[in-house]
């Protein structure tokens, strides 16, 4: 079986490395990628500033978030130590284990905010977070041994592998996460070189698919779509979030109102200001310049991730690294587009900035995988 | 699965991957570009629109009530002012256990146990940061005792606010009136812009009649509020810098009354424990110097708010303390109208200075057995004597010559039977009957007729005739000035609170009663003088030995009809059925400066009960008696 296969990879030690005593040596031994870690820390740091203001200058929330970041960084470090081959071998276990958890959630999960998303096994967590990584890993695992670009039969299998967790999560309901998970899987297929004919064919299918989706959507989700199209139809109800969010961002202007001076955020006009709508707080207090600054940091992270993917030695690592990086970009896009009123409101946090637990850990673990892939890359012969 | 890895073209695969990755990133970056374009649209092109909306979101306009004008007496003594009072408030969100807190407050005696459920309900409903008022006005003792306990009551505070205060309590209750909390009908009636922040409005007296001057105009200030309407304290945020300019309220005008607190107090004390009314005025201007209605009440109760029980007690009190007898109480004027009727009789020729009547103690109309009784047989009397000694028979005899319509004509000229036009609202017109009045106001055919007997009793101010104390004071002032009338008024000046510029209220001359023969006036006024200071005057005991000359006329208003052949016996009659005692007077006789009307309900005797009160007021005003200069 897969586990029996000997490792084809080895760690690359730089010749100048004299051991674990020097800092650079330690960093290399821990498989840390400095550019990636540095930009992630910058995002987290900037995020803490915004969060402090968004949470009404509450240090309680701030400390809580710092602890989460710390836990997430530890998770990242641990994952970074796992060789890609090891990850690959364990991928099916992770994927199917995750599916079991998703089924458990639907049958015996905790209910919160009108959805059944949490599982309480000592710690309360969202199994859908596991799937954020498990799905692209599974896609990459499946394609690792197969011909690239994949054949239609393989694509069908992959489609099922994506559809099942997506459906289970959408059923919770958690539309935002299911979209992200579907996206992470689809990105793997695209990166694997699926023919454009199939891509466009599926794209064409998506139009009737959208109608199908509409029929499956919950009332509140339909309302969100309608609200997006005309937020002023119900300014105090469903349209309130998006109206207040646009006011916050728009009133920020080029340079913003200044840290902790955003009236929309400070006076609580902006709902969900420290979670999903924290981007609006950033836009209000730091203006267009602050927003573009954060987006630039995100771009750097994504660029570094793609670079790592380009350097990866095998199909699994390459597809996984590419998917993690581009899914991160999808995260950023969905949240910012939602907060600026371009897409309907789906509950997607702004990665690394929004206050929240599990998604931070998942994201950092994903970057841990990137670091591991980068450390275990093999220089290909030219 | 094939245990051997398929031979893969890594190079080709990597190139394919890079191509796809670049493509996918390009698509996603284009999407992100859309977001950036959107941000530019919101933050650059539509920035001003959204900046305005954000301002509109958080700025609330709050009305600032103006400070109500003060009321002073003619000497500048404050009669109505605004004092800071402390009210006890509970802010629900700052209290962990509301019912426990309320129970402990009740144990301290700060609130009534019965009110706990009501306050608990108020704390539950409504916004959690909005204070619930537990007590409108705390006494000094309550403030002191609560101050010590305050650490045990987080979320319970006292808040200062301005409360109308009447430092002299009952003394001016009817003259100045009071303010009370705005009610629904007030809100419909009043200009909502002016009253935007106000809680109270004048309800009676000067407070009500001069509401326009006293109230002032509301100002406005702009507040920063959050999404739930909570005000953000000014010192916590720079957000306040961009606020529009506030508009300060215009304070209400101050009012100077013509009332004299010293005189008012003498009048008030004179009626202590009685029911009645006193009005004193300056006949040469119409300025009211004292206006008392007894019993009185504490107007502060209305300004601060009182319990239903307290209000019911005032409302249901048999003595009717809330009733302003001075301008709304109508009494049979009794013999006090005799000087005026005498002038009318002389002027119309119904009598002359030489005519005499022989008073045997009663009078009978021709062909009628009914005896119209006098209070005593006076023997032969002329007009002068009949006033000085208050002989009813003389007036009974001339009544048919004078006729009810002449009585009506001349008494109306003296201001009876119609509103005096005093500058406080609510006065009653009283009643001077006439044939026409009777025709118009009765349904039954027999009742529409005017009977001769009704003329007889009208000649001594009985029957249908009714007058207010204010009308009588004004009428005696007119007598004092030999027919010249001024409109009575209580407000002497209105002061701009900012420039301190006073606008004096000019006396309003209402004309002359139209009796020009000085001899008639000499006779009638001389008779009035002799009432108080003549050898046979009904009130000679009162005016005896006074260092100044005065004039007056007593009156006794019969409120229970006495059967024929029955003697009025004071002791046998219930106190509330005794006659009203009236007295009208003016002084000094040669240079009148004060005119006084006194009514003591169920006081029995005008000369003995009402006259001394009038004398005391004149003494006070003219600086005699206790106030005499040494």
Integer count of domains of chain A = 2
- Tell me the structural class of chain A: mainly alpha
Q: Identify low-pLDDT runs of chain A.
A: 1-10, 13-20
Radius of gyration of chain A: 21 Å
| Beta fraction of chain B | 15-25%
Instruction: Please estimate the helix content of chain A.
Output: 55-70%
**Could you give the distance between the termini of chain A?**
31 Å
Sheet-strand content of chain A, in percent, reads under 5%
Mass-distribution shape of chain B = elongated
Q: How many DSSP H or I helices of chain A?
A: 14
The separation of the N and C termini of chain B measures: 133 Å
Please summarize the sheet with the most strands of chain A: 3 strands, antiparallel
Kindly state the number of beta strands of chain B: 22
- Widest sheet of chain A: strand order? 1-2-3
| Subunit arrangement of the protein | heterodimer
Task: Describe the protein.
- The complex is a heterodimer of chains A (382) and B (630).
- By secondary structure, chain A is mainly alpha-helical.
- Chain A folds into two domains: 34-81 and 219-376, no CATH class; 101-217, no CATH class.
- Chain A contains 14 helices and three strands.
- Chain A has helices at residues 23-29, 34-54, 59-81, 84-108, 127-144, 152-170, 175-191, 196-216, 219-229, 240-252, 263-266, 278-311, 315-339, 358-375, and strands at 110-112, 115-121, 123-125.
- In chain A, strands 1-2-3 form a three-stranded antiparallel sheet.
- In chain A, helix 4 (84-108) packs across helix 5 and helix 6 packs antiparallel against helix 7.
- Chain A starts with 22 loop residues before the first helix and ends in a 7-residue tail after the last helix.
- The relative contact order of chain A is 0.16.
- Chain B is an alpha+beta fold and 630 residues long.
- Chain B folds into two domains: 62-165 and 217-250, Penicillin-binding protein 2a (Domain 2); 262-627, Beta-lactamase (3-Layer(aba) Sandwich), CATH 3.40.710.10.
- Helices cover 36% and strands 19% of the residues of chain B.
- Chain B is built from 24 helices and 22 strands.
- In chain B, the strands form seven sheets. In chain B, strands 2, 3, 4, 5, 9, 17 and 18 form a seven-stranded mixed sheet that branches. Chain B has a five-stranded antiparallel sheet with strand order 11-10-22-21-20.
- In chain B, strand 2 (71-72) and strand 3 (78-90) form a beta hairpin.
- The longest helix of chain B has 36 residues, at 10-45.
- The termini of chain B are far apart.
